[in-house]
């Protein structure tokens, strides 16, 4: 009986069943952000797949992974968008009230579970480090990324501040570990690079810090007294902005690094034959 009461309390709303009413402006803001994310993810997927031939073969895997990441994200944003549309209905009062269909926030976490480890692989891949160094980095980063997301989820779906705080804190431990590893290793990896690559990698690290830092901030909004419809808007818009920075924009920086490193490595004759045979090296570059 007590357990039942406790469960009912901590699970109010569950994965967002009975959300608050949204004004037309709030609904449209979220709606347009989701729509923008679908366009950004979809268009950048096309770009990353097609841009592979403009970088040296050893950097192509990084662009391929960038393309896969934004493709996965585009798919999930379509699902999130549809779920959001079904979860609210315009009523006679001109506001959007929750329907009986819950807004499915789990799509985000499933998306992150796939894309976050891949984003880390992408960053390591473009550096073209020695194989053993790269493998060890990828393993540590992928395990930490998975832990970060799995630990964050129970807090995300809880409306209980204590529960949210506990899982959020646990999730922050692997998060800090990832940032530390990337900060130290990305810096070390650029020591021998050209000035241009150094600046680009520095920008990549800053973008990573800036965009990844938005997620825990959006997560704690409901704990900072921002509740009801403002919390829904803050969390959804916050995560969407962060996703566009962390995936398409991050991918573009990866592309810029691959182009700069291709040039530093001696360039490439951009005339790839259809069979994808090894490219000739442009000695004059
Ligand atoms: C493309 C998606 C990306 C890069 C997602 C990144 C997500 C995070 C960095 C999430 C971090 C969290 C915490 C550090 C604590 C609270 C729970 C999370 C999962 C929101």
Which helices and strands occur, and which strands form pairs?
Layout: H1 2-10, H2 24-51, H3 57-87, E1 88-90, E2 96-98, H4 106-127, H5 131-156, H6 161-189, H7 195-220, H8 228-264
Antiparallel strand pairs: 1-2
Helix pairs in contact: 2-3, 2-8, 3-4, 3-8, 4-5, 4-8, 5-6, 6-7, 7-8
The chain binds retinal.
The site of retinal has 18 residues, from helix 4, helix 5, helix 6, helix 7 and helix 8.
Domain count: the total is 1
The span between the termini is: 76 Å
**Which structural class fits the helix and strand makeup?**
mainly alpha
CATH architecture: Up-down Bundle
Proportion in β-strands:
under 5%
What would CATH call the homologous superfamily? Rhodopsin 7-helix transmembrane proteins
The main β sheet shows up as: 2 strands, antiparallel
Note the total helix count.
8
Bound molecule types: retinal
Give the strand order, joined by hyphens, for the main sheet: 1-2
**CATH topology assignment:** Rhopdopsin 7-helix transmembrane proteins
Number of strands: 2
Helix content: over 70%
| Poorly predicted residue ranges | 1-17, 271-275
Shape: globular
For the record, the CATH class is Mainly Alpha
**Rg from alpha-carbon coordinates:** 21 Å
GO molecular function: light-activated monoatomic ion channel activity; photoreceptor activity
Pfam families: Bac_rhodopsin (PF01036)
Keywords: Chromophore, Membrane, Photoreceptor protein, Receptor, Retinal protein, Sensory transduction, Transmembrane, Transmembrane helix
Protein name: Xanthorhodopsin
């Amino acid at each position: 009986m007590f357990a039942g009461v406790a469960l009912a309390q901590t699970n109010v709303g569950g994965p967002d069943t009975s959300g608050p009413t949204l004004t037309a402006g709030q609904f449209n803001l979220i709606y347009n952000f989701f729509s923008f994310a679908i366009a950004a993810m979809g268009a950048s997927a096309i770009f990353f797949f097609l841009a592979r031939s403009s970088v040296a073969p050893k950097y192509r895997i990084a662009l391929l992974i960038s393309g896969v990441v934004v493709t996965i994200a585009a798919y999930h944003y379509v699902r999130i968008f549809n779920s959001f549309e079904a979860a609210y209905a315009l009523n006679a009062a001109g506001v959007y009230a929750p329907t009986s269909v819950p807004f499915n926030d789990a799509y985000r976490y499933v998306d992150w579970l796939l894309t976050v480890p891949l984003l880390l692989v992408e960053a390591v891949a473009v550096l073209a480090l020695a194989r053993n160094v790269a493998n060890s980095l990828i393993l540590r980063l992928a395990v930490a990324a998975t832990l970060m997301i799995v630990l964050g989820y129970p807090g995300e779906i809880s409306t209980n501040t204590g529960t949210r705080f506990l899982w959020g804190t646990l999730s922050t431990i692997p998060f800090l570990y990832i940032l530390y590893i990337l900060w130290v290793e990305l810096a070390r990896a650029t020591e021998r690079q050209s000035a241009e690559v150094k600046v680009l990698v520095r920008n990549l690290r800053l973008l990573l810090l800036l965009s990844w830092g938005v997620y825990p901030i959006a997560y704690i909004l409901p704990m900072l007294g921002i509740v009801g419809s403002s919390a829904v808007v803050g969390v959804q818009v916050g995560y969407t902005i962060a996703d566009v920075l962390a995936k398409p924009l991050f991918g573009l920086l990866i592309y810029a690094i691959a182009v700069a490193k291709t040039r530093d490595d001696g360039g490439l004759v951009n005339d790839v034959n259809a069979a994808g045979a090894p490219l000739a090296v442009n000695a004059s570059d």
